[in-house]
Design goal:
Length: 358
C-alpha cells in the first residue's frame, strides 16, 4: 500500500509523523476523497511507527469505510480528539510533516495542541518523491484524460466560433469535457486577440473576430488524474507577425520534446525552449517556465523551468508549453502532456499542432 511506502520514507528521513488534510495527497495515500470539508477539521494522522487514523466530521460517516477513523460531531471540539490520537500514537513532539495547503486556522490550533513541541516541515518535501514517479495504472488514467482533451479539440473546431464570447466558449469547452470525463482539471482559459498576450487570461466578454489568434488551454480529470492541453487557433488569416510567432513556438515545443530523455535535467528541457525563442528574437516575450509536472494535481513536480534540478526518469509526466506573448498584439502557446517512457519522451496529448485556420 502507498501509505506503507510513505511511512518507510518518512522514517528514512527522520520524521516522527505527518498530518495530512483533505486533498490530492490524502487521496493518493488512502483513496479517500473528501468533498468540501470546509472549516471542519479533517486530518489523517500518521506516525513513523506505522500507526495511522483519520479524524473526520461525522458528515463523512458514509464516505470513509474500511479505514481507521475517529469521527467528531458538530458541537464537539475536534482538537481534543486530535490531542487524544496524538497521545495514543506517542506523538508529543518532534519533526512533523504538515500538508502544504492546510488551513491556517487548523494549523494554529494544532500548534497549540502540540504545546509548541513540534517542528513543522512541508509534506511535499517527502511525498514528492513518490508522486513524481507514476506507475502504469496512473499513466493509463492520464492517457484517458489526454484523449478526452484531444477529442474536445476536434469537436470545438466544428463550432460556430465567430462572434462567440470568450466566456461562452470556455463554458462550452467545460461542458464538453464534463460529458466525457470526471470533470475539469482547472477552469478553461480562452484568450483571444490582444487578450492572448496574458498567459492566464480569465475568459471575458470579448467576442471572437476574424483575424484573431485564440489560445485555448483546458484539461480533464480521469480517476483523479489530470490532463492539460493548449492549442492556439486562428479565425481567418491572422497578422503575418503572429504567424511567424506561431512557427517559433511550434519549433520550440518540438525541440524541447525531442530533448526529453531519461537522466536529463528538467532545466535542460527548459533550455531547449528558451534558446529557440531567444534565437528568433522573442526571448523577452517568453515570460514563464516551459512546463510543470502533471498528475493528481495540475501543477506538481517536476517543474520544467530554468531552476529545474530534477533528473527525468521513466514514469515522470509533465507538460511542455512554451509561449510568446506580445502586449497589444496577442500571443501563442502550444502545450502537450508528456511521459518519459523507455528513456524517451512520449506525447500523451496528440491534437494537431499545425496552425489551424477556421
Ligand atoms: C492551472 S491554470 C494554467 C494551466 C496552464 N496550462 C499552465 O500551466 N500554464 C499557462 C502558462 C504557464 C503555465 C503555468 O505554469 O501556469
Amino acid at each position: 500500500m502507498l501509505l506503507d511506502k510513505f511511512i518507510s520514507l518518512m522514517k528514512e528521513r527522520n520524521f516522527d509523523g505527518a498530518l495530512i488534510s483533505p486533498g490530492t495527497n490524502l487521496y493518493y495515500l488512502t483513496g479517500i476523497h473528501i468533498h468540501e470539508a470546509g472549516e471542519r477539521l479533517t486530518v489523517l494522522v500518521v506516525s513513523a511507527d506505522g500507526d495511522y487514523r483519520l479524524l473526520a466530521p461525522s458528515l463523512y460517516e458514509n464516505v470513509v469505510r474500511n479505514f481507521p477513523v475517529t469521527f467528531w460531531r458538530d458541537g464537539e471540539n475536534p482538537y481534543d480528539k486530535l490531542a487524544w490520537i496524538l497521545a495514543e500514537f506517542h506523538l508529543s513532539g518532534g519533526r512533523l510533516l504538515i500538508e502544504d495547503t492546510m488551513r491556517a486556522d487548523w494549523l494554529i490550533n494544532i500548534f497549540r495542541v502540540g504545546n509548541r513541541g513540534f517542528e513543522f516541515y512541508s509534506l511535499s518535501s517527502v511525498i514528492r518523491e513518490l508522486r513524481m514517479r507514476k506507475d502504469h495504472r496512473e499513466i493509463d488514467y492520464m492517457k484517458h484524460a489526454a484523449k478526452v482533451v484531444d477529442r474536445v479539440f476536434e469537436e470545438l473546431l466544428s463550432w460556430d466560433l465567430l462572434g462567440m464570447r470568450e466566456r461562452e466558449l470556455a463554458l462550452k469547452i467545460e461542458l464538453a469535457i464534463r460529458e466525457l470525463s470526471d470533470g475539469i482539471s482547472f477552469e478553461p482559459i480562452v484568450a483571444s486577440g490582444e487578450n492572448a498576450a496574458n498567459p492566464h487570461h480569465a475568459p471575458g466578454d470579448r467576442r471572437l473576430r476574424k483575424g484573431d489568434l485564440v489560445i485555448l488551454d483546458y484539461g480533464a480529470k480521469w480517476k483523479g488524474y489530470c490532463s492539460d492541453i493548449t492549442r492556439t487557433i486562428a479565425l481567418g488569416r491572422p497578422d503575418e507577425r503572429l504567424v511567424e510567432i506561431y512557427e517559433v513556438v511550434k519549433e520550440a515545443q518540438e525541440r524541447a520534446y525531442r530533448a526529453v530523455r531519461e537522466g536529463i535535467l528538467a532545466r535542460e528541457v527548459d533550455g531547449a525552449v528558451r534558446e529557440t525563442i531567444a534565437k528568433a528574437g522573442y526571448g523577452e516575450y517568453f515570460t514563464h517556465r516551459t512546463g510543470h509536472g502533471l498528475g493528481l494535481d495540475v501543477h506538481e513536480e517536476p517543474y520544467i523551468g530554468p531552476d529545474g534540478n530534477v533528473a527525468l526518469e521513466n514514469g515522470m509526466t509533465f507538460t511542455i508549453e512554451p509561449g510568446i506573448y506580445v502586449p497589444g498584439l496577442g500571443g501563442v502557446r502550444i502545450e502537450d502532456d508528456v511521459v518519459v517512457h523507455d528513456g524517451k519522451g512520449k506525447r500523451l496529448t496528440r491534437a494537431e499542432r499545425e496552425l489551424i485556420i477556421v
